[in-house]
Amino acid sequence: MAEKVNNFPPLPKFIPLKPCFYQNFADEIPIDYQSLVKRIYHVWIFYCITLAVNVIACLAWWIGGGYGVNFGLAILWLILFSPCGYVCWFRPAYKAFRSDSSFNFMAFFFVFGAQFILTVLQAIGFSGWGACGWLAAITFFSTNVAAAVFMLFPAVMFTMSVVAMLICILRVHKIYRGGGGSFQKAQDEWNSGTWRNPPSREAQYSNFSGNSLPEYPTVPNYPPGNQWP
């Protein structure tokens, strides 16, 4: 078997750093779930883009007469949530579907659920939270119309992120419960330590041991054709 070399994030060759993860949807994710896992990946990318647009909108908010703390927090959210979103909720979802890991499913539900609630708050847009949501954009029209128009873009994108996250978490939960997943299975994986590096589905099949067909102590003797009753 060819050795799997880490390929994500795809860094330029002049950067003296190497990718940290191996990611290959066609190679590691069952074909029935590839579209869903890719959709979760695209949700992460879209959320990162939303955070970048939010930084620009918070800058316009500050220039138009808002508070600079929103711009500073927007930069912090972009630096913090972009890598943490990939590591803390996309990778658990990827590993959960790759190896049918109940622990990783539970980790995804917990972290992604918290991310969903946070994105709802960002879409609302409370002042001083570093997010240009609907409340911040609409109320700022009376102060600076041009800045408020810029602030509407992340408000719309945060709302789209909320809808996409809700669809993803409902679909993953339906698949997990339909496959017999439970919190007890996640506890068993934690106690056994298999949650650290769960084997892929192919490895589970290749490591199967035992008799796949029933054994007979002797070969059955059938009567000749002319002795059948």
UniProtKB/TrEMBL annotation:
<dbReference type="GO" id="GO:0015031">
    <property type="term" value="P:protein transport"/>
</dbReference>
<feature type="region of interest" description="Disordered">
    <location>
        <begin position="197"/>
        <end position="229"/>
    </location>
</feature>
<protein>
    <recommendedName>
        <fullName>Secretory carrier-associated membrane protein</fullName>
    </recommendedName>
</protein>
<dbReference type="InterPro" id="IPR007273">
    <property type="entry name" value="SCAMP"/>
</dbReference>
<dbReference type="GO" id="GO:0032588">
    <property type="term" value="C:trans-Golgi network membrane"/>
</dbReference>
<keyword id="KW-0812">Transmembrane</keyword>
<keyword id="KW-0472">Membrane</keyword>
<dbReference type="GO" id="GO:0055038">
    <property type="term" value="C:recycling endosome membrane"/>
</dbReference>
<comment type="similarity">
    <text>Belongs to the SCAMP family.</text>
</comment>
<keyword id="KW-1133">Transmembrane helix</keyword>
<comment type="function">
    <text>Probably involved in membrane protein trafficking.</text>
</comment>
<keyword id="KW-0813">Transport</keyword>
<feature type="transmembrane region" description="Helical">
    <location>
        <begin position="44"/>
        <end position="63"/>
    </location>
</feature>
<feature type="transmembrane region" description="Helical">
    <location>
        <begin position="102"/>
        <end position="125"/>
    </location>
</feature>
<keyword id="KW-0653">Protein transport</keyword>
<keyword id="KW-0597">Phosphoprotein</keyword>
<feature type="compositionally biased region" description="Polar residues">
    <location>
        <begin position="197"/>
        <end position="212"/>
    </location>
</feature>
<feature type="transmembrane region" description="Helical">
    <location>
        <begin position="69"/>
        <end position="90"/>
    </location>
</feature>
<feature type="transmembrane region" description="Helical">
    <location>
        <begin position="145"/>
        <end position="170"/>
    </location>
</feature>
<dbReference type="Pfam" id="PF04144">
    <property type="entry name" value="SCAMP"/>
</dbReference>
